[in-house]
Amino acid sequence: MRSIRQIKNIQGKTILLRVDFNVPIKNRKVEDDFKIIKTVPTIKFLLKKGAKIILITHLGKDGSASLEPVIQCFWKVSKFKKDKLEFFENVRKFQGEEKNDPVFAKKLASLGDIYVNDAFPVAHRMHVSVAGIPKYLPSYAGFQLEEEIKNLTRAFKKPKHPFLFILGGAKFFTKMPLIKKYLKLADYVFLGGALANNFFKAKGYEVGKSLVDETDCDIKEVLKNKKLVLPTDVIVKNVRNSAIAGFVTKKVDEVEKDEIILDIGNETVKNLGLLIKKSKFILWNGPLGKYEEGGEKSTKEALKLVANSKAESIIGGGDTVALISKMKMEKKFSFISTGGGATLDFLANGTLPGIKALG
To answer: Do the domain assignments include residue 353?
Structure first.
C-alpha cells in the first residue's frame, strides 16, 4: 500500500480524495465533526504540494441526503480556501456505487489524475469509490487511513499484556469470529451490550424482551473459556407495565419476562474497573448499554476508567466514539478509530477490500 508521501509531481494534478463525511446531522447541522477534522492533515498536505482536490463522500444509506450541512461544516472547521477544493455529489446517489459497477468506476476515475483513500470507515465496502476507482488510477493511502492501520494492527501483532478486549453493541453473529480470535490473543474478553444477552440466554437465564440473536455459533463452547468475562448485574426496565417506572438494577439471573436489559450494573462496572487497572493494553469497540434508551451511563463510567488508566488504549465503534466526543475526551486515549464495521472487520481479518485495492 503506497502512501501519499510517495506521490511524485502533484503540482497541478487533480486528486480524487475519498473521505468519510457520513456524520450525524440534526436540524441541518453536523452534530459530530470528528471524522471531518481527521481528514484535514491529508488535505493540507496535498494542497501544499499544489494539487486540486475533488472530495468524494456518501451521506446516509440511500444517497438522498444533501451534502450541504457537511460542506458548511467542512469549510468552518478546515478554514481552507475554496479555489482548489470541490465536492462531488453524494456518491451513494448513483446506483453503480454500491454495485461496484466498472462503467461508473471509469466515469469517476476520468475526473482526476490520482486517487487517494482516506476513508477508513468505508474501507470494508466493495464500492466504486473505495475499490473500483483504484483499478483505473494511480492510488495511494491518506494519513488517517495509514494511522488506522498502524494503530489497529497493534491489537494482533505483539500487543502488551495483560491485554483487555472490551466488546459491546449488537450484531452478535458478525462479532462471534472476533470474540473467538481475541479469546486467543487477549488475557480477558469482556462482553457488554446486546452481545452479553446471547450468553445469558445460553446459560439458561431469562432475558425478557432484550435483543438476542438466535444464531448458535458454538456459544456454549465459548462459555467454557476462562478468559471470557460477563456482566454480573444489569439495569432493566419493565416494558409491559407502565406502573413500574424507572430503571432497576438486578443480578443477571433475576431478569423477568416483561423486562428489557438496558445497561450493565454498578457491580459489573467495578469488576471491569479492576481489569482496566491491571491491563497494559485495552482494545474497546461498541457501547456497553442500549445508549439510545438511556443505557449510556456505564459506558461513560468505564470510558473514564480507561482514560485515567496507564494502559495503552484503542477505542472504536461509531456510538462509543460519539460518546467520547460528547464527553470531550478525544485526547484521553492512545488512539480513537473513525471506523465502525470497518474496525471490526480489520481486527478480525487484518485487511479490508479498500486496503487491498491500494496494493
So the answer is: no
Higher pLDDT: 105 or 171? It is: 105
Confidence of residue 322 (pLDDT cuts 50, 70, 90): confident
Q: What CATH number is given to the structural domain containing 279?
A: 3.40.50.1260
Structural domain that includes position 266 = 154-344
User: Model's pTM, two decimal places?
Assistant: 0.92
Q: Comparing 225-229, 293-297, 310-314, which segment has the lowest mean pLDDT?
A: 293-297
In three state form, how does the secondary structure of the chain look? CCEHHHCCCCCCCEEEEECCCCCCEECCEECCCHHHHCCHHHHHHHHHCCCEEEEECCCCCCCCCCCHHHHHHHHHHHCCCHHHEEECCCHHHCHHHHHCCHHHHHHHHCCCCEEEECCHHHCCCCCHHHHHHHHCCCEEECHHHHHHHHHHHCCCCCCCCCEEEEECCCCHHHHHHHHHHHHHHCCEEEECHHHHHHHHHHCCCCCCCCCCCCCCCCHHHHHCCCCEECCCEEEEEECCCCCCCCCEEEECCCCCCCEEEEEECHHHHHHHHHHHHHCCEEEEECCCCCHHHCCCHHHHHHHHHHHCCCCEEEEECHHHHHHHHHCCCHHHCCEECCCCHHHHHHHHHCCCHHHHCCC
Q: Report the number of distinct structural domains present in the chain.
A: 2
